[in-house]
Amino acid sequence: MEKGVFLGVDVGSVSTNLVVINGEKEILKAIYLRTNGRPLVALKEGLRQIYDQIKEEEISGVGTTGSGRHLAALVLGADTVKNEITAHAVAASYLVPGVRTILEIGGQDSKLILLKDGVVTDFAMNTVCAAGTGSFLDQQAQRLNIPVEKFGEMALKAQNPVRIAGRCAVFAESDMIHKQQLGCNIEDILAGLCEALVRNFLNNLAKGKKLYDKIVFQGGVAANSGMREAFARILGTEIIVPPYFNVMGALGIALIAAFEWEKQPYKTMFKGFNVKDAELKTENFECQNCPNFCEVVKIYENYEVVGYLNDRCGRYSQMNNKKLAGIG
Amino acid sequence: MKVGIPRGLYFYDYYPFWETFFQELGVEVVTSKPTDKEILNLGVEAAVDDACLPVKVFFGHVRFLKDQVDYLFIPRYVSEYRRTYICPKFLGLPEMIIFRLKAPKVLSHDLTAYQKGADFYRGVYVFGKKITPNGMKVMRATYTAWKKQKAYLQKKYLGYQPQDLIDGKQEYVPDLKKPLFAVVGHAYNINDRYASMDLIKKIRRFGGEVLTPDNVPFAEAVKKAGLLPKKPFWSFAIKNFGGSIYLAENYPLKGVINLNSFGCGPDSIITELTERYLKRKFSLPFLNLTIDEHTGEAGLVTRLEAFWDMTVERSFAGESNLPAHG
Hints:
The complex is a heterodimer. Chain A is of the alpha/beta class. Helix content of chain A is about 35%, strand content about 25%. Chain A has three domains: about 1-95 and about 240-275, ATPase, nucleotide binding domain (Nucleotidyltransferase, domain 5, 2-Layer Sandwich), CATH 3.30.420.40; about 95-240, Nucleotidyltransferase, domain 5 (2-Layer Sandwich); about 280-328, no CATH class. Chain A has helices at about 40-50, 70-75, 85-95, 135-145, 150-155, 170-180, 185-205, 225-235, 250-265, 320-325; strands at about 5-10, 15-20, 25-35, 60-65, 80, 100-105, 110-115, 120-125, 215-220, 240, 280-285, 295-300, 305-310. In chain A, the strands form three sheets. A five-stranded mixed β-sheet of chain A has the order 3-2-1-4-5, with helices on both faces. A five-stranded mixed β-sheet of chain A has the order 8-7-6-9-10, with helices on both faces. In chain B, helix 12 (about 235-250) packs parallel to helix 13. Chain B contains 14 helices and ten strands. Chains A and B meet through helix 3, strand 8 and helix 9 of A and helix 2 and helix 14 of B. Chain B: This is DUF2229 domain-containing protein. Chain B: It comes from Carboxydothermus islandicus. Chain A: It comes from Carboxydothermus islandicus.
């Protein structure tokens, strides 16, 4: 079997990313799209964008990750389905060999991953609360009527960052409003917010863990220079933001698909680019077979059922292909 | 006469004992079904809002059973072992149920082994006398029940989980040669398949096997708990801290998974102490999972998968010797 290219798909809460790498693991294409609450639409759009450059026959493997990985796997026909923590760690240690600490802040969650000799030794993820993640920054930028891309730039201009309560997004917001009504200028408030989020991240996730150099900062929020600066200042060390920092999950899962192929060549289950034009629909129903009343999701492709998700007992999802059912 | 035993809190610790005890006295025993959405909803509606998840679940089981039985069996566990106490919510449990659910038919009495272990059976005797005036019959029932409980404990020391022995339709035989994980937490959380999102089965489905503090004799756990500067007075704290140290010393563990219910006071301290001790002494990977009323499993599955990748399938990230990109 000839080794072609590998497609990695990361369906996150805020962004959906696609990365294509070739057999030598060079990145051919990296796409960052907003999920906008419709993962399937974003997925189709992503496929449309790589369709011109990549031939269907070339694809040797497909991997999916992110919180929507099972959905994407069913629709695409994925060979590898992995959690985003592993994917991020693989991508970071590939682009930045010798990395010891990964700070990852995405749309809904933030992660801290510690590695030694390229092996993950510890990780932490934010708990139930999404304070201090990308969507909160997004919200605040919107409230202040600043494009989120400009957020970091403005924060860097601050002379005297104000102190903002960072433990909870609701507290942070009311604190910001208080400071704003006192007349503090907006740059100082933004810089203060960045510092508060970094403090919150370190309090919540690091919890006294020792963070060794090299420290890599990735995920969508790494685009924000204000956050990068705040991390560097508080940790007192250099922060590396790798190229492709915003599609690291997709890159990681593409690499995993490639590594698995190298270990044991497989025939891909990729369904082909037709999916980009297919009519994808989902339907929820409440299963009545036991008192758990699971809200099962049924996925249609061109009016044909391709799979089920979210049943606790596996009554429906065991009909999906075996590899997926194993993850349940 | 029908006595209902709710499938919550101390159910998984003492069910074989009470089942045998009541049956020997000629009483029919009814249990509620394993926790599901209906039970949880019943419980959350009725329980005080700041109670922890297991108490809410217990309320659900009681409401489910309430009208099917003559008496609800809700003893007041005060102390399970000498010089230890149980979490205060157990002390107030009968009253909470009686006043909150207007359930008058509650069979309750204190069970305490604080002064000496035999006192526990004094409490058991009182229960028996409520059912039959024949003291000899009560003593015989207690002895048979005790033998049953002892057999149950022996099974647990071999690595069986309470849910395998009580809930399982056919008996599951644990295979301790598989990658081993210690799941540390309260038995009523770990064994509740709905509340714990079937944590044990998920680990087994990955290909691992599970050990819990239930698999450790209490006497061993107490010895290990002596490593703390001061012995905790909660028996659960002793079981969890001492139990995890015992498991780490005696089995080739891959990692420790701690299961907490949100808002548990004692656990907030004990988890921290356990994590620090395990990391310092054994450098064991530690994963903390907090459960509440969530039904979305994605968060738990992601963490569990990543933990599995990190501890067992270490090869994925082991490619650091590859040339850097570009």
